[in-house]
């Protein structure tokens, strides 16, 4: 009987820890966005564009997931994972709202 209680308590503890770390941000939407870590020199314009895109994505309360943003000559590549397919469309909509964006590649974005 004691072993069963210990195993049950351990399972609950592990589950609770996973819930605590599941959301990397403390905001109401569990969205984590970071700049891409691709090798090579990015122009300052690309760095600023990536920062602007990241800021806009983080400000959207409808998005949830983990994203990586990369900018090269005004072309944005997004990789990572979102909670729903509709969020992929929302990501593209938000990014295309920026006039400096030439194209958006979401082929590496999964649900």
TrEMBL record:
It comes from the Bacteria. Residues 1-22 form the signal peptide. Keywords: Signal. This is BON domain-containing protein. It comes from Zhongshania arctica.
